[in-house]
Specification:
Blueprint: H1 2-27, H2 45-52, E1 58-64, H3 73-92, E2 97-102, H4 109-116, E3 121-124, E4 129-138, E5 144-147, H5 158-170, E6 176-181, H6 201-209, E7 211-215, E8 228-232, H7 239-250, E9 254-258, H8 284-290, E10 292-294, E11 298-302, E12 306-309, E13 318-327, E14 343-347, E15 352-354, E16 361-367, E17 372-376, H9 386-392, E18 401-411, E19 424-432, E20 444-449, E21 452-457, H10 461-473, H11 477-484, H12 492-529, H13 540-612
Parallel strand pairs: 1-2, 6-7, 6-8, 8-9, 9-19
Antiparallel strand pairs: 1-4, 3-4, 4-5, 10-15, 11-17, 12-13, 13-14, 16-18, 18-19, 20-21
Helix pairs in contact: 2-11, 5-11, 6-10, 10-11, 12-13
């Protein structure tokens, strides 16, 4: 009988446990405790503001193939993540965002509808059935936005993609951006290959968010009713165009300008004459009137943020001080344009300063490290080995401003009467002393996915440009969402160790080359000092000098190996410490917490027993 009671009790406890588990799961469905450092699984404030600002209902239809994905657990987990995010957005919208889930089964009307919207079906399994994982967004008028396929590899960008879709559908009219570019951002014909090039990724992103109004440098005036003016590598602007830009700014227009002392991305009118072409761009007349200094003769070479580049396939990458990756440490953390970006890549950028008489306020957005210096821009025309440039940089200890926000009252650069335009006005501009950051090769890779082009960014250049335009338009909500999308977490300590070791290696290599050249010079002098003509036989002095040189070379090579071993040892030691924390410390903390809770439970039980007695 006792055994029967025990078995019954166990069955009762098992049923009770199962019931409580089901009930608790239903009660806390959708609840989360986000312990990630960047709060990646919590809606950002910007997203919440966008949702609460929706005035007309928006519908998001989530197309996901339930049956087709039965054997793909990772895809199903990601789909659940998408659904949870959509549900949370709908909850936060106060009923203005409606979410529907649709399963486009093979040969169904739902599959035909998905195809009509342009959703991409990925063939999976032996039968080759299409897997759909996309979203269609509509508003109460004729607005339509489509995410053809949400790649699980881009989960970090999921919230931004959805917020962007909602933002576009909630706007009755898209803001108009006037774009004047001296670079082939629109995908012009490549004269060397005869192939039509794709538009630059950053231009595509601007076109997705805003209505682009193309402007030619030869035009006499700006288009009417543009909200933001974007100038990229402005070359030979007509006098009338410069005058109209001046008028636009003084009347309260917003300006985003990209200028450059040496634009690597400028193909020029004749690619065969690339070595002789002028690659500089500036707004000299306007800058002078505003009290802005921009020297087109020099560029900023940054040893502290130099990126590794491979000049040819198969060669070991080397640091290039003209191609720099600005890290978060050298961005303005308090500005919404750069506040949460991680990395922006530039090439041979210039620097910005204010004159002593300028009335403007300059707020840096991007800066060099303190381990930087100025180099003649002409040096880049004939540069073959970036290692040579590393040795030529004279570090000044200054941190140069590479991009800045300019604000304040300025006067006109032209003499105008009251009918022609204002003589002064408020300047609201962002100026970037580099144009190469816009080119694809410095921040994004294009991948072909079942006939479509998917952008895979490895730096935040595109985010920076969109953030800047958004901010100049006065919309800061979408900026905060986009900034959260950057999930790259570089191991900065290891990178710092590697950079330090490379500096030591470079100094040692330079010393080796100098001593080698000195030894060869002395050997040559001894050879020339001989009176005989038999140069195949070394004199005792030459033999001694040669032996000394060989010993020095062996010693210096030993030092090079030691520097490399020290680097590896430091990195391995750091890795060992990290493993110790992950393997030993965290389980130890959990164990201590469990023991504390068990002790507390027993103490409470003992106190309760004593109180009842």
């Amino acid at each position: 009988m006792k055994n029967i009671y025990s078995a019954s009790a166990l069955v009762f406890l098992a049923v009770l446990f199962l019931a409580l588990t089901i009930l608790s799961g239903a009660a806390i469905k959708g609840a989360r405790l986000d312990l990630t450092e960047q709060k990646l699984y919590t809606l950002s404030e910007g997203t919440i503001n966008l949702l609460q600002a929706i005035e007309e209902p928006i519908t998001l239809e989530f197309y996901f193939s339930e049956e087709t994905s039965a054997e793909l657990p990772m895809v199903r987990n990601f789909a659940r993540r998408v659904q949870e995010l959509l549900d949370e957005m709908a909850t936060r919208s106060g009923g203005q965002l409606r979410v529907r889930r649709i399963d486009p089964r093979p040969f169904s009307e739902e599959e035909d509808l998905a195809d009509s919207y342009g959703l991409e079906g990925v063939p999976v399994g032996a039968a080759g059935e299409n897997l759909y994982l996309g979203i269609v967004g509509t508003n109460m008028v004729d607005g339509l936005e489509v995410l053809p396929f949400i790649s699980p590899a881009r989960e970090a960008f999921l919230e931004y993609e959805l917020a962007r879709m909602i933002y576009i559908l909630s706007q009755p009219e898209r803001p108009r951006v006037g774009l004047l570019s001296g670079l082939p951002m629109d995908g012009r014909l490549d004269m060397q290959t005869g192939q039509q090039q794709e538009p630059w990724a950053v231009r595509e992103q601007i076109g997705e968010m805003f209505e682009i109004e193309p402007i030619q440098a030869s035009d006499d005036a700006l288009p009417a009713d543009i909200d933001v003016l974007v100038l990229v590598h402005p070359g030979d602007l007509s006098a009338d165009m410069l005058r109209d830009i001046d008028r636009f700014v003084l009347e309260g227009g917003r300006l985003l300008a990209f200028v450059d002392p040496y634009s690597e991305s400028d193909p020029g009118p004749d690619p065969t004459a690339a070595m002789a072409m002028d690659r500089t761009s500036s707004l000299e007349g306007l800058f002078e009137a505003w009290g802005v200094e921009f020297d087109t003769d020099v560029f900023v070479a940054d040893l502290g943020q130099a990126l590794q580049v491979a000049l040819q396939a198969g060669q070991r990458p080397v640091r290039h001080p003209a191609i720099i990756g600005v890290t978060a440490d050298n961005m303005n953390p308090d500005d919404v344009v750069t506040g949460e970006l991680d990395a922006i890549n530039l090439a041979s950028p210039g620097h910005l300063e204010l004159t002593d008489s300028s009335s403007l306020e300059l707020e840096p957005l991007l800066m060099s490290s303190a381990n930087a210096g100025l180099v003649d821009a002409e040096r880049l025309r004939f540069l073959e080995d970036p290692g040579e440039l590393m040795a030529e940089v004279a570090v000044t200890g200054d941190r140069y401003v590479l991009a800045a926000r300019l604000s304040g009252e300025v006067g006109s650069a032209f003499e105008m009467d009251n009918a022609a335009g204002p003589t002064s006005g408020p300047l609201n501009a962002i100026v970037v002393a580099d144009t190469d950051l816009l080119a694809d090769r410095y921040w994004v890779q294009r991948q072909r996915f079942f006939g479509s082009s998917i952008l895979d960014p490895f730096a935040g250049n595109g985010d920076f440009v969109i953030n800047a335009i958004d901010n100049l338009l006065g919309n800061a909500d979408l900026i905060s969402v986009r900034s959260r999308a950057t999930g790259n977490r570089p191991f900065t300590l290891v990178e710092s160790l590697r950079r330090e070791a490379e500096q030591n290696l470079l100094a040692t290599e330079q010393r080796l080359e100098a001593e080698l050249a000195e030894a060869e010079r002395r050997l040559t002098e001894l050879q020339q000092a001989r009176g005989d003509t038999d140069l195949s036989v070394l004199t005792p002095e030459q033999e001694a000098e040669l032996d000394r040189f060989m010993e020095q070379r062996i010693e210096i090579r030993r030092q090079l190996r030691q520097v490399r071993r020290d680097l590896d040892r430091d990195i391995e030691a750091l890795g060992t410490r990290v493993k110790a924390v992950n393997i030993a410390l965290m389980p130890a903390l959990v164990t201590v917490l469990a023991l504390f809770m068990a002790w507390r439970r027993r103490r409470n039980a003992r106190v309760a027993a004593e109180a009842s007695a």
